[in-house]
Amino acid sequence: MRAVVWKGPGKVSVDQVEDPRIESATDVLVRISTAGICGSDLHMYEGRTSAEPGVVLGHENMGVIEEVGSAVQQLRKGDRVVLPFNVCCGTCFNCSRGYTNACLVTNDEAAGAAYGYVGMGPYRGGQAELLRVPWGEANCIKLPGKPGDELEDDFLLLSDIFPTGYHAAEMANVQPGSTVAIFGAGPVGLLAAYSSMLRGAAEVYVVDAVPERLERAQKIGAVAVDFRKGPPAQQIRDLRLKNPLVRGAMRKGEEKMAGVMCGIDAVGYQAKDFEDPSKEQPTSVTEQLAEIVNPTGALGIIGVFLPEDPGGKDKAAKQGEYRLPWGALWEKGIRVGMGQTPVKSYSLALRDLIIAGRAKPSFIVSRRIPLSEAPDAYAKFDRREPGYTKVLIKPAMGQPSAAH
Ligand SMILES: NC(=O)c1ccc[n+]([C@@H]2O[C@H](COP(=O)([O-])OP(=O)(O)OC[C@H]3O[C@@H](n4cnc5c(N)ncnc54)[C@H](O)[C@@H]3O)[C@@H](O)[C@H]2O)c1
Ligand SMILES: [Zn+2]
Ligand SMILES: [Zn+2]
Fold first, then answer.
1. pLDDT for the residue 398
2. Domains 2-160+342-393 and 162-338 share a fold
3. If you placed Cys at 321, which of 137, 301, 316, 326 could pair as Cys (CB 3.0 to 4.6 Å)?
4. Is the CB of 342 within 6 Å of ligand 1?
């Protein structure tokens, strides 16, 4: 089969690789109808992880079951499914408590596994024609309809970033009436904004510097904050204090709460320096969040931080160690959540919101491509070029008699 393979920093190619096959009685084979390219793939693409060349990429996968192992009872050939990016066993101590992001069985090296990702177990990714899904019963979310129908792209986003955006909002304690600041208007930041609104947030501010992405944030009703125009925390505080309705509702002393209650980092360790965006400054977002989140607020750090970064600027950064405004966060009594999303905890509820027509996360999808265009799309997405906010690969596109 054909698959997208990481060859080294800045280089992926579409190679012929061996077809996956049923290796264990609980496996399922899925013919991929759509696979997403994720901001998380870019950390590997750029050589900013400890990945070795040869990884078949792709952790955002959906398709149709082609074959099931002999122990699989509840799924059959022809079922349409989406695969949460966490590969889980479904029954260990952590999976049983809903923490499928920290499965104790599927990865010998750490708690938690994923398809096509460094440090996340031996599983190949789904930017390919076929995917082996281990522990099939636990890892397949069943979908209605047919490949290529009008919900295909919405459903694909259930594999990672819609649940991830929602989890960020959960960690940041977004509730009806909440005020929310989100750093990063990539797919994750945009769906964190969208999820915050689904949860009833009153005000949502989204910070980035890519005009197309800020426009998308504005279109769903968020307030776009361009960090090229000044420190974003100050911009958000000014916007709130200059709003006569916000100001007019405040009692004496409440100016101390002129920030927001909920903060989300949807950027991670490759955050740009606000003063010189040609450079990275991994703590720039945390610093701004510590400033803008009100006393008693909460933070959701959904952007990735890794314990190994070959491109870190000094010895500490290479080991994922940073200097943080811990005192400021402690003094304000801020609750902080972080880590991989336990996708499966959210995917059924969010799937049913999509089916009911009450959520349409595919507004972020900007381009659909055949497998052969993946190398070009990686390069353009990596440069955050217009039109490349979220790219979906359709392996059957351009193939004879294909549905996509
Ligand atoms: N925790 C999880 O389970 C999980 C799952 C999926 C993705 N992620 C992570 O979420 C992050 C975002 O993913 P994405 O797909 O949206 O990727 P992305 O890289 O397209 O988006 C990041 C955005 O942040 C912007 N940005 C850079 N520096 C900034 C700064 N200092 N302030 C504000 N914005 C800044 C960029 O312009 C870009 O638009 C990545 O780190 C990704 O690995 C985490
Ligand atoms: Zn992803
Ligand atoms: Zn488990």
1. 84
2. no
3. 316
4. no
Stretch 283-289: mean pLDDT: 98
Q: Provide the 3-class DSSP secondary structure of residue 373.
A: helix
- Among 208, 279, 306, the mutation site with the greatest number of ligand 1 atoms within 8 A of its Cβ is 208
Domain extent listing, the chain = 2-160+342-393, 162-338
Average pLDDT, rounded, for the chain: 97
Give bridge partners of residue 225 from the DSSP assignment.
207
Q: Which ligand is nearest to the CA of 89?
A: 3
> Is the distance from the beta carbon of residue 292 to the nearest atom of ligand 1 less than 6 Å?
no
CA–CA dist 116, 131 (Å, integer):
10
Q: Is the pLDDT reported for residue 302 higher than 50?
A: yes
Given a contact cutoff of 8 angstroms between Cβ atoms, the answer to whether 63 and 31 are in contact is yes
pLDDT above 70: residue 402? no
Structure tokens at 320: 């994922």
pLDDT of res. 133: 98
Residue 188 Cα: closest atom of ligand 1: 16
For domain 162-338, the CATH superfamily is NAD(P)-binding Rossmann-like Domain (3.40.50.720)
Identify the burial level of 339 via C-beta atoms within 10 angstroms of its C-beta, where 0-12 means exposed, 13-18 middle and 19 or more buried: middle
Top-level CATH class of 2-160+342-393? alpha beta
Q: Is 136 in the pocket of ligand 1 (CB under 6 A)?
A: no
Query: How far does residue 31's CA lie from ligand 2's centre (Å)?
Result: 19
